[in-house]
Design goal:
With 505 residues, this protein is of the alpha+beta class. Helices cover 32% and strands 21% of the residues. It is built from 17 helices and 19 strands. The radius of gyration is 23 Å and the shape is globular. The structure holds flavin-adenine dinucleotide.
Length: 505
């Protein structure tokens, strides 16, 4: 240890989501002494709240499941959506995904399984049923108490201030975090430090040599002999930075766990001359307000219809969530929107929410759900034009009676079939309900500009030696498009792995 540093490692990884832990694991597996620096008391960030889907095409996981996926069809699909933009990184991603999965699955802690989850656009190269996959559920006993205590609890328990249930298997995003943590721990070269907020980079615009972080009110200088990987999410919880960069929505509508992503790592890199891109962008979703004042992510509508502040319908409610989020942004009178439904679900939301919607009585009491005997009365309660709302609902009911949404084709796409209900149900019988729908995000998606090895680039396109970024800390090559389930995690994991390989030399 030199005098300059309080602690020194080969590799410093800032953040602990799916990208961060993939990079940390591979660096440690290559024999590099690695530390994961996490600001909160638990690991996993938004990745742990996620479905754990990874869009990593052309791998042995799809082959095992007999899914007709390939690197070539994924290339066709991405090209149809993105054109030439981000081509170098896209090609690297496509080339690396199969190799990454092979390397990860060499470790018995890391096993994956295909799960049907359709891609988000009808374009050439789309695979029926989708091509993303998930981690297998993890028995908490395999993880052990000490490591389990490090994994962020499930969203609903986390928000309620409850810890992990030691008898419940870790699934979805938590399985990914648990499995990567287990593999990282077993390398014997991995350290984790929680409650440690990185807010400065040490070095020059030419080379980064470490970070400065705050731990229990103390400044800690942590040296990085090989490099620093910034994989610390976006800046979704930073209202000031959202304002500066014109990110739609609000920080309190982000689905990132409370107290996580504020964007200091991006700001620290910019202070050294790093370039940024897509800073106004996010991974979008519709959201509803919960009785505790927080938001829930909504998708998979199984009934009802969404209207704007005028009482008009404006989109296919069963669109993939990012696309619906972009529809909300397309006009000011879509915030708030209202999900109007009737007796059929008895106050439960006719949609999937994360966290679960819960008891309708609690929503009615909190005013997050309103109820009326007539559509006119409902319109008065939500402040929309009663004639327009009635007309919109009657028109929708006509489509439901004929089994065909002539306005937006809600019954048509495979995504709506799988997540929502392909059958349109009329909204005809009292009581009528409405829940407010607002724009939420899964995180921002703009950030540091990186090259195909995840090296952070300066404005002139040259790399800052020793500095890497992945996940939502970096600008996504997918630009304004969310192509399919698992793109955030899949891309974060691939670019973090490339950073680890570069540092391992
Ligand atoms: C309900 C839900 C379902 C989703 N499902 C999927 C899915 O199935 N597949 C998919 O690909 N995506 C999914 N997403 C989106 C995905 O979870 C996120 O986009 C992705 O996990 C972001 O990863 P990240 O590593 O960039 O950030 P995160 O996973 O949020 O990790 C960032 C970590 O860095 C820490 N950190 C931040 N700043 C600092 C600092 N200064 N110092 C130290 N630590 C810091 C944070 O505390 C946090 O723990 C979902 C999101 C939600 C909310």
């Amino acid at each position: 240890m030199t005098q300059e540093w309080d602690e020194e490692y080969d590799v410093v990884v800032v953040g602990s989501g799916g990208g961060a832990l993939t990079g940390a694991y591979l660096a440690a597996r290559a024999g590099l002494d690695t530390v994961v620096v996490e600001r909160t008391g638990s690991l996993g960030g938004t990745s742990s709240y996620s479905g754990g889907a990874m869009w990593l095409p052309g791998t042995s996981v799809q082959r095992r499941a007999g899914v007709p996926d390939s690197t070539e069809s994924a290339r066709t699909y991405l090209r149809a959506l993105l054109g030439d933009s981000g081509e170098a990184k896209r090609e690297t991603f496509l080339a690396q995904a199969p190799a990454l999965v092979e390397r990860l699955e060499e470790d018995p802690a890391l096993t994956f399984a295909f799960q049907v989850f359709p891609d988000y656009y009808e374009r050439p190269g789309r695979v029926p049923g989708g091509r993303s996959f998930i981690p297998r559920a993890l028995d908490p006993a395999e993880l052990g108490d000490a490591l389990l205590a490090l994994v962020r609890p499930p969203l609903d328990r986390d928000r309620a201030g409850q810890g992990n249930d030691p008898s419940a298997p870790l699934t979805a995003g938590r399985a990914l975090i648990g499995r990567l943590l287990l593999a990282y721990h077993r390398t014997g070269h991995g350290t984790v430090t929680t409650d440690t907020v990185m807010d400065e980079l040490v070095g020059t615009p030419e080379r980064v040599t470490g970070i400065v972080a705050t731990r229990q009110g103390r400044r800690v200088r942590i040296g990085a002999r090989k490099g620093v990987l910034l994989a610390a999410g976006g800046f979704e919880h930073n209202e000031r930075l959202r304002g500066v960069h014109g990110v739609p929505g609000r920080s309190d509508c982000s689905m990132a766990p409370a107290g996580t992503n504020l964007g200091e790592p991006v700001e620290a890199a910019v202070a050294l001359g790093a370039a940024t891109d897509l800073m106004h962008e996010g991974w979008w979703c519709p959201g509803v307000r919960m009785p505790d004042g927080q938001r829930a992510f909504v998708c998979g509508f199984t009934g009802g219809l969404v209207v704007d502040a005028n009482g008009s319908r404006y989109a296919n409610e069963s669109l993939p969530y990012d696309r619906f989020g972009r529809e909300i942004q397309a006009a000011p009178d879509r915030t708030p929107s209202f999900l109007v439904h009737d007796f059929r679900t008895r106050g439960k939301l006719p949609a999937v929410t994360q966290p679960p919607w819960g008891d309708p009585a609690a929503h009615l009491e909190a005013g997050t759900l309103v109820k009326a005997d007539t559509l006119e009365e409902l319109a008065g309660l939500i402040g929309v034009n009663a004639d327009r709302l009635t007309e919109t609902v009657e028109r929708f009911n006509g489509f439901a009676d004929n089994g065909k949404d002539e306005e937006f084709g809600r019954e048509v796409d495979e995504f709506g079939h799988w997540f929502g209900d392909p059958v349109l149900h009329p909204v005809r019988e009292a009581p009528y309900y409405a829940a407010r729908i607002v724009l939420c995000d899964l995180g921002t998606k703009g950030g540091l500009v990186t090259d195909a090895s995840a090296r952070v680039l300066r404005e002139d396109g040259t790399p800052i030696a020793g500095l890497y970024a992945a996940g939502n800390t970096s600008a996504s090559f997918t630009g304004h498009v969310y192509p399919g389930p698992g793109i955030p995690l899949g891309t974060a994991m691939v670019f973090a792995s490339l950073a680890a390989d570069d540092m391992a030399g």
